[in-house]
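Milestone M4 deliverable, item 7.
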Amino acid sequence: MVSDDQLDRAFTALGDPVRRALIARLSRGEATVNELAEPFPITKQAVSRHIQVLEAAGLITRSRDAQRRPCRLDPAALEALTSWLDTYRLATEQQYRRLDAVLETVKEKEK
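Output delivered:
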């Protein structure tokens, strides 16, 4: 189960378009800060701060590989967010299915 604090940090982190773009890039594979900073018209330091926010939210991890410090998505964190969202999506879908059944019954009675 995801705590409210974890959800707050994750959704706050995802609220920024640069951080969402970083997540999108990392979905294609790990990358260093320099590689992540290339497409953005902001400084590497700014990109590094965005990465720190994503890391603090638990959405990405960083490791050491000699001189490289690659960033990668944390699939467990993304799965936890997906599960949390799915709880509400499924509940809403059930409500719509029940409504569809009621409407179908009314439609059949009208015929």
